Each structure stands twice: as C-alpha cells, then as structure tokens.
C-alpha cells in the first residue's frame, strides 16, 4: 500500500506508547491553581514583602526564559506556565524577608542554568526551583536562614506561646526566635545549658498551640511553609486532576513519619508521636512531597520507582535534619534523589509483554 494516502500516518516509535490529551500549559497552570490558596494565605500572613518576592521571582523566571530563547534563536514559549511555576516555587522556598534581588537571581539560575542549558522543558535532570534554592543557600546562607517574618510578639513561631512558669523565660525567647525544626534540633543543648528536664521542654515545644499553628499556618518559616492544610488541599486537587499520583507523596511523608518515630522512640525521647507531627507538618515536607518531588521530568516513571523515590527522599530528609548541620533537608534530599532517577527507572522497568527472562 505504498501509494495509499494513509501510509504517511504510520509512525514507528519505541515503547512506552502513552498518549494523553493533556498539554503542558494545561498541566502547569493546574499546578499554579493548586498553589494559589497557599500563596494567597502566605501574603495574608507575611504581608506585602512576601507578595513582592513572589512577583519578582515569577517575573525573573519568565524574563530569563524569554531572553535565553531569543538569544539561542529558539521558539519563544513563555506562556506555557512552566517558567511561572518555577518562579513561584522558588519564592515558596525563601524566607518572607529575603531580599528581592537574591530571589531574582535564584529564579534566573533555575531557568537558565538548570532548565534551559539542559535543553529546556523535559530535559532537565534536577528540579529547577530546588536547584535555585540550593544556589541561594550556598551563596547567601545568612539571608536564607535568618530573614524570617516576625509576628507582633516578636516571635517567628506560634503567637499563642506563653510561659507556664516551668520553662525559664530565656529558654522561651530562644525557642520562639527559631523555626520549630531548629528548636527541636537544639533541645539537647537547651536542657543541659539551662538545667531543665527534657519532658518539660518537650511539653512546651510540642504544645497543641504549635501543632495547630503548623497545620493551619500561623507560624514562621519559608513562604511556602505557611499552611500544611492548604498545601494538602492543593495536593489532593492535583491527584483528583490526575496531574500527580499518590505514590511519591505518601511514600515520602510515610517514610518521614516512620523513621522519625522509630528514632525518637529508640533514644527515649518523650512524646515521639508528637515529634513525628512536627517533622511532617513543618519544614516544607508537604510542599516538597506534593509539588516538587512529583515533577514529571525529574521523578521515576513506574509506580514502584515512584515509591522507592519517595522513600529515598524521606530517609535523606530525616538524615539531613538529624545528623546534618542544617535543620532542614527537603530540598537537598529531592535533588539527590533526582540524580538516581535513571538508575531507579532502569531497575523498576516493567517487563515487556510476551518476553521471557533468559536463564543464566
């Protein structure tokens, strides 16, 4: 049938043969929509500077993509939403009082170095937003670890914190000047230095006020760490829209919960179940699990691979938090696991239908 008009429609390609009606722009703008409630709430909690950072980050990402595509004489595609979501996620990963110029450079690095120099969308091996965060952390660590929002009380933790007469005021001042993960990491030093019991310290640090603030969002941290509840709603929305699946978020968060409980139980820490809640509700676990670890380009293809990837992210995050010098580890854990994706895909590749394994 070489002369048939339909012969031009025959296309030979390798597996997997997957076709979906979704387009890149539809997927990207769906992710932006899922992040919108948390973004608006962050602006409400942290004020105009957070809004400025978000706007500058998105503008820098889109502008960087446009300039690079023009200079490289590539088709200009800045309205597909990919640059917007990168800029938004970069902003979600910085403190609310960070300087705008630093965030702009972080977005430009994410787009030009991590995304475009690797070939553009679909070819980058690392998550661009997280790589931008790592770049800012390495270049300006003071801005990335100290420029937190201060509530009217002067604290960056829950505003409801009050002394019960058990904890010295100087210890309360130290705790409330740090993020929850930092305060948790410094607990051993505080008990020795101020001669207080670990039970009384944890009773204060793991109070219902702090846990409630972590879940709802009235607490300090990076812009994207405002509300675990709103991020969870956005993640469920993405799963409902079939933009992501449950495999990575559940295995990521589940591993953090299991490992943290086991660790604090074995070392004899009081209330290990409440320490688990602090670990999974703070430090961007939900943001990383639902919005960054699930990036289609930098995560495994198969369900088994996704579960392994999520478990690796959770284990590395907890290891960095407990053994590392920095109390947070989500971004570095995901970036390290991004590098293992080709290997994971290789060993979790499903067998071809009708093919038998050769016996050695």
Sum up the structure in keywords:
single chain, 360 residues, mainly alpha, 2 domains, globular
Note down, in words, how this protein is organized.
- The chain is built from 18 helices and no strands.
- With 360 residues, it is an all-alpha fold.
- The chain folds into 2 domains: 123 residues, no CATH class; 179 residues, no CATH class.
SSE blueprint:
Blueprint: H1 24-46, H2 48-71, H3 82-92, H4 100-115, H5 128-139, H6 141-146, H7 169-176, H8 180-185, H9 187-194, H10 198-205, H11 208-216, H12 228-240, H13 247-266, H14 272-281, H15 285-292, H16 303-323, H17 330-338, H18 341-347
Helix pairs in contact: 1-2, 1-3, 1-12, 2-3, 2-4, 3-4, 3-5, 4-5, 5-17, 12-15, 13-14, 13-15, 13-16, 16-17
Instruction: Please tally the β strands and state the result.
Output: 0
Average predicted local confidence, pLDDT: 84
Described by the principal axes of the CA atoms, the overall outline is globular
Beta fraction: under 5%
Q: Helix-strand pattern, N to C?
A: HHHHHHHHHHHHHHHHHH
Through-space gap between termini: 44 Å
Q: Number of helical segments?
A: 18
Helical/strand content category: mainly alpha
Q: Major sheet, described briefly? A: none
> Roughly how much helix do the residues carry, as a percent range?
55-70%
Oligomer: single chain
Low-confidence stretches: none
**Radius of gyration, rounded?**
22 Å
Short description:
The protein contains 18 helices and no strands.
């Amino acid at each position: 049938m070489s002369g048939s008009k339909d012969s031009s429609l025959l296309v030979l390609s390798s597996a997997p043969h997957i076709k979906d009606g979704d387009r890149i722009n539809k997927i990207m703008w769906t992710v932006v929509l899922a992040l919108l409630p948390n973004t608006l709430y962050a602006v409400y909690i942290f004020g105009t500077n957070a809004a400025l950072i978000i706007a500058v980050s998105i503008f820098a990402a889109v502008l960087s993509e446009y300039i690079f595509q023009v200079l490289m004489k590539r088709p200009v595609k800045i309205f597909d939403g990919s640059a917007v979501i990168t800029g938004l996620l970069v902003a979600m990963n910085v403190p609310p009082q960070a300087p705008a110029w630093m965030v702009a450079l972080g977005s430009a690095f994410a787009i030009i170095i991590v995304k475009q120099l690797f070939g553009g969308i679909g070819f980058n091996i690392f998550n661009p937003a997280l790589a931008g965060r790592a770049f800012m952390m390495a270049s300006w660590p003071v801005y990335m670890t100290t420029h937190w929002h201060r509530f009217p009380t002067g604290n960056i933790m829950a505003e409801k914190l009050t002394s019960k007469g058990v904890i010295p005021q100087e210890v309360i001042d130290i705790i409330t000047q740090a993020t929850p993960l930092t305060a948790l990491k410094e607990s051993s030093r505080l008990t020795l230095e101020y001669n207080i019991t670990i039970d009384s310290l944890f009773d204060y640090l793991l109070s219902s006020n702090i846990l409630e603030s972590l879940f709802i969002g009235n607490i300090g941290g990076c812009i994207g760490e405002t509300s675990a509840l709103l991020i969870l709603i956005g993640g469920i929305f993405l799963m409902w829209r079939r933009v992501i699946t449950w495999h990575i978020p559940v295995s990521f968060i589940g591993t953090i919960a299991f490992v943290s409980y086991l660790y604090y139980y074995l070392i004899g820490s009081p209330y290990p179940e409440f320490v688990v809640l602090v670990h999974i509700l703070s430090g961007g676990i939900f943001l990383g699990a639902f919005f960054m670890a699930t990036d289609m380009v930098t995560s495994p293809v198969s369900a088994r691979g996704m579960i392994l990837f999520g478990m690796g992210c959770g284990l590395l995050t907890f290891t960095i938090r407990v053994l590392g010098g920095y109390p947070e580890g989500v971004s570095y854990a995901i970036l390290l696991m991004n590098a293992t994706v080709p290997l994971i895909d290789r060993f979790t590749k499903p067998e071809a239908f009708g093919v038998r394994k050769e016996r050695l």
